[in-house]
């Protein structure tokens, strides 16, 4: 089972994360052998490599295809490594299994298409390989969850999720927006499924890979899928985001792994005490919201009696402008206050509309 590969499931703390690394694309037998050999020297024994590359636009390099599979078999034999490749159709699955691939992954563009996910899941029935499912290219949590449900329904349960970021036209720093809340929400709904981070596709450039990888460890991710090439600048695809095996080894040494839980009685007691205070603060927050809602209902009754519209834009504008200023004085993030009051106002309007529409 794939879960056995992850340190967080072995109850050991501060252990090195599980890493699958390798070139974006398998290009030639020489490139593969050299890269795999160098990765092995860095202690990496799970290798990735693209054979079929689904590209956004035609004309760019789409992978060397099936001929790469015997090259991979040779590299596996030479270095005693395991290999993971992407599959995007039943035909790819059949070929991958025929050539002893050890792990498969479903790419972001495939996850976005339920027909493709269904086809891959069905073609894998009875197979023993673990499968990684990357998040869909668009920021749609349920589409990602749906892909897992399709695999589970087909009886394939040896699964892990890969967070590779989301396509976002407004994003400027990264190639794909990390939107960390989405993988966190995924972990909440599928706690038994390990979550791997692909910092290469989020970062888009090698100088940012470590920052993303560290953030993933801080958020208790279980491992990495990282692109590495022995001559990154000459790579046939994704040249800017690939690291040399040596740079990757160095980066992995520099990453700080964290414990999942607080260790030691004193630390745990302190934490309990602070959490009790948080419970109290949350209670007061809910009481304040309840008090506000009671007042909203009072105004709602008054508006109904006097035949006044629910929405009062001037008052709403005043609230929307003053609350962030109040919050700023307390050091609270402006965006949080705006989002919070937008939700609160939405609820007020809903409550008052119900009051006005109620037939007495
Ligand atoms: O002040 C009012 O008129 C209200 O009904 C309260 C309230 C609010 O949530 O604060 C709700 C709806 C209006 O659009 C403006 C403000």
Tell me the radius of gyration: 25 Å
Strand content: 5-15%
Measure the end-to-end span: 62 Å
Helix count from the secondary structure assignment: 13
* SS class: alpha/beta
Give the tally of β-strands.
8
Overall pLDDT metric? 94
Q: How many domains make up the coordinates?
A: 2
Q: So what's the overall shape? A: elongated
User: From the 3D coordinates, which CATH architecture of the largest domain would you assign?
Assistant: Alpha-Beta Barrel
Oligomer: single chain
- Biggest beta sheet attributes: 8 strands, parallel, barrel
CATH superfamily of the largest domain: Aldolase class I
Which CATH C-level class of the largest domain is it?
Alpha Beta
SSE succession: EHEHEHEHHEHEHEHHEHHHH
Domain Chorismate mutase: 265-356
Pfam families: CM_2, DAHP_synth_1
Organism: Algoriphagus namhaensis
EC number: 5.4.99.5
How would you describe what is shown here?
With 360 residues, the protein is of the alpha/beta class. The protein folds into two domains: 2-254, Aldolase class I (TIM Barrel), CATH 3.20.20; 266-357, Chorismate mutase (Chorismate Mutase Domain, subunit A, Up-down Bundle), CATH 1.20.59.10. 49% of the residues lie in helices and 9% in strands. It contains 13 helices and eight strands. Strands 1-2-3-4-5-6-7-8 form an eight-stranded parallel β-barrel, surrounded by four helices. Helix 1 (29-41) runs parallel beside helix 2, helix 11 (265-305) packs across helix 13 (334-357) and helix 12 packs antiparallel against helix 13 (334-357). The N and C termini lie far apart (62 Å). The mean pLDDT is 94. The structure holds prephenic acid. Prephenic acid (PRE) is lined by residues 296, 299, 311-312, 315-316, 319, 345, 348-349, 352. This is chorismate mutase. Keywords: Coiled coil, Isomerase, Transferase. Pfam families: CM_2 (PF01817), DAHP_synth_1 (PF00793). Residues 265-356 form the Chorismate mutase domain. Residues 264-291 form a coiled coil.
